[in-house]
Design brief:
9% strand; mainly alpha; globular; two-stranded antiparallel sheet
Amino acid sequence: KEHYLDKIFDLIPMSMDWKRNGTHQYSNFSLYMNSYFHIVGETEWDLRNHPEVEFGFLSEKIFKPMLGIQPFIVVGHHGSLDMLKKWGFKTFDRWIDESYDKEENLLKRMELLEKEILRLSKFSREEMDKMYWEMYDDVLIHNFNQIDIHVVDEWNKVQMSIENMWENINS
């Protein structure tokens, strides 16, 4: 596992996507303006020790490139992209080979991720620019706008859950 992570880290310049202001951290969106795609390192990506879990969860990390209007590759559990699609988001399958997301075997998934990151890193600036603008309206702006819809949907679920719990307490 560490070997594959080292190989992926060797492919990318190391930059943090946050700044610290006193005790608060905030995303440094200027980095999104200096790159063409984002590698999202999700919290849960190895579920081998959790056979009872069908799929993991997606953290706040997945929303950062959407807010930065940037395509992304997810280093996460298999099915992460399917989960996003169920929530109404679009992915980049017309431009990025997303077969890694279907692979349940962790090592094979890491190999597929490495292969796709290497392929994308060989694009010229012109190729990356063309790809970016092809996906801009249909996928990137859609996802940016979908965040608000998703937040409202999730808030409504939380509210309904609290109301149901309250009714059960009072009955």
